[in-house]
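Why this split exists: single-chain examples teach little about how molecules sit against one another. For that reason, every record in the complexes split bundles all components of an assembly together and asks for one structure covering all of them. Below is a record exactly as it appears in the raw files.
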Amino acid sequence: MTAQQSPNPSSLRTRFTYRFLRALKELNKHRSATSWPSYRRVKVAADASMAAAVKSRRAWTRAVLRKIRRGHRSPRWNRPLATRELRRKIRRNHGGNPRKIRGSHGDFGQTNELRKLVPGGESMEISSLLGETAHYIKCLSTQVQVMRDLVDLYSSTPTS
Amino acid sequence: MDPPIISETSFTAANPSSYSLSEIWPFPISGGGGKAGVLGLRMSGFGEAAANRDEESTLTEQSGGGGGAKRRRNANSEDESSKLVSTSSGNNDLNDSSRRRTKASDSVSKAEVEASSGSGSKPVEQSGKSSEPPKDYIHVRARRGQATDSHSLAERARREKISERMKILQDLVPGCNKVIGKALVLDEIINYIQSLQRQVEFLSMKLEAVNSRMEPTMEGFPTKNLGAPTFDAAGMIFGSQAQREYAQGSHPDWLHMQVGSSFERAA
């Protein structure tokens, strides 16, 4: 690897690409290990690599990592509720989260929709939700670009 | 604790020109005073202040030029009732700090007036004492007509933060700059995120399909193939032109390098 060709070895894109490729390789190795639909695994790998590349500095990456960790334990459909999750569910039902309530009658009606889209956005205050959204969009578009380039790369490869 | 009774009638005598009592200085300055009583009075004075809002602002304009405003300090007042009092010349609306300063320097009398907020909906924290004018101002970014109590300030700061972040988001999302209105901008943002997430989903399907067959050939991967990336299906289907433009940067040769090196390392 020559130095002048690599634009910025510590950029988010580089880190993400590196992690993602490693994850893909791992996926290829253990192909039939789990019962997931395998494109889900690719997607989870992409999300995890992106979140790991950002390094849990952001709330949304923490949420993504938490979700993946939870999802990894057992498949979603027959997983018993963990106690922490159960507690969270109870709290949610009782409306115990003041920030959520406060945000819900904020200026915009679409914030709740945004909350559902941004990982971890349910319990965020609105200004931090917008900040996280901005970062999330940046990361997501980086992810899309890298993945698209990878797809192009692989599909232009002559198959053996 | 005997709250001084402040009513309109008690002031109409003192200030024939003033239309109403709309504000009450909430803080007992010289030790005495009943705070609870004052607060109650403030509450009662409220609706009135809101009702007289327009009148107030015009009056402010006039009296600002004339310098006829008297801000009264009650520090050495004799009776309790004048301790908490009120406006003398119908000038209740002092939010601009410079205006406040002129008022303060003009003032000679004893009772201090609390400036009402311009919106009339919130009690305002007093920030200038008339006897020692310059030093105890609270410097806030409040234009005239804006409330200056701490809640309003915090709320305004929060709103500024939100709109600043909205602006950042608007720059991020392609085609969002022309959209006017927060709701529409948020719609655009939501659509954009959804399209990106769908693209990730779609691309991971493609990658999965392609990943299974790519590994054996990876070692002898010809490096020249990477020159012109073809944006076929993904770009066409989701039709985000900005993405495609962006992706055509100086990226591919670099990416290829990454791929090659990482696979060498892995193998």
